[in-house]
């Protein structure tokens, strides 16, 4: 019989890439992870891993086992959701991941309403860049998360997660109010200084990709990840920046927002099989109502 905990480690290795990363995600030592994977390989009776340089990679049998593991883990999540639905009332802890502009706009009213309706359920919010959330959903540090991508930087579907659409936002180029731009704002900002996110974040990639589509590489002057700070820098004449609708709420004087053709798409994500968990389902409904109310303002 294959051990589910060891199967989870193999699945995580396929996503995280190194034994050290798997160990860090589970608060194990790399040696302990290696021992568990070796035990799984003995249980399987066929090689699951092979050396690749200084690391390891999955064999074809290992890859096939990971596909089965995804189905097994999703079934366990669904079983847990069924048992949770049989209990009376919602209790325990719901761990929520969200990106900064959603924490500032959409989440506060949703948390207040959800807390009133389900006072025995503790809500814990962690602010994260969307790039970091799938790993935390997979390893159980989050139960539900607000993920987003942009149509100009689409993210491939993650086979370990399910999600439902929440919001489709207009994306703007934020420019100083006295700036003069052509019909194509990004092309018109070819010679401008740019304010972009930290390298490695989705916001950084989006700004660079938008400029590349217009035929140039941005001249980056500042790195900032908080849109309030970004807009303050724009108002001070420090450059231009790509800002989505939620991040552009209540811009300061001295900023003009020029709509772009790009859109940011936000969805509510959770582990495969967890969509029917009563806490996840109820929070999704509350969050959607909060989002609709925010958009009607």
Automatic annotation (TrEMBL):
Pfam families: HTH_1, LysR_substrate
The UniProt record lists the keyword Nucleus: no
Entry GO MF terms: DNA binding; DNA-binding transcription factor activity
Coiled coil spans: none
InterPro entries in alphabetical order: LysR_HTH_N (IPR000847), LysR_subst-bd (IPR005119), WH-like_DNA-bd_sf (IPR036388), WH_DNA-bd_sf (IPR036390)
Cellular component aspect of the GO annotation: protein-DNA complex
Domain HTH lysR-type: 2-59
Family in the record: Belongs to the LysR transcriptional regulatory family.
Protein name in UniProt: LysR family transcriptional regulator
Species of the source: Virgisporangium aurantiacum
């Amino acid at each position: 019989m294959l051990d589910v905990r060891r199967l989870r480690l193999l699945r995580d290795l396929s996503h995280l890439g190194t034994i050290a990363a798997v160990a860090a995600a589970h608060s194990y030592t790399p040696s302990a992870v290696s021992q568990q994977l070796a035990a799984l390989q003995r249980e399987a009776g066929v090689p699951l891993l092979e050396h690749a340089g200084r690391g390891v990679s999955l064999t074809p049998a290992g890859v096939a086992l990971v596909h089965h593991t995804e189905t097994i883990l999703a079934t366990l999540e669904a079983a847990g959701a069924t048992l949770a639905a049989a209990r009376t009332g919602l209790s325990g802890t719901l761990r929520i991941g969200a990106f900064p502009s959603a924490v500032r706009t959409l989440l506060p009213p949703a948390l207040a309403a959800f807390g009133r309706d389900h006072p025995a359920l503790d809500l814990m919010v962690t602010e994260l860049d969307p790039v970091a959330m799938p790993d935390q959903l997979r390893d159980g540090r989050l139960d539900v998360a607000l993920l987003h991508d942009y149509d100009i930087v689409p993210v491939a579907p993650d086979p370990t997660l399910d999600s439902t659409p929440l919001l489709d936002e207009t994306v703007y180029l934020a420019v100083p109010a006295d700036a003069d731009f052509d019909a194509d704002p990004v092309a018109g900002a070819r010679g401008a200084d740019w304010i972009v996110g930290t390298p490695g974040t989705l916001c950084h990639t989006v700004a660079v990709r938008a400029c590349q589509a217009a035929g140039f590489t941005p001249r980056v002057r500042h790195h900032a990840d908080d849109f309030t700070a970004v807009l303050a820098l724009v108002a001070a004449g420090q450059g231009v920046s790509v800002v989505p609708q939620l991040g552009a709420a209540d811009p300061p004087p001295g900023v003009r927002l020029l709509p772009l053709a790009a859109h940011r798409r936000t969805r509510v994500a959770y582990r495969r099989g967890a969509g029917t968990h009563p806490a996840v389902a109820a929070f999704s409904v509350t969050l959607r109502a909060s989002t609709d109310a925010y958009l009607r303002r």
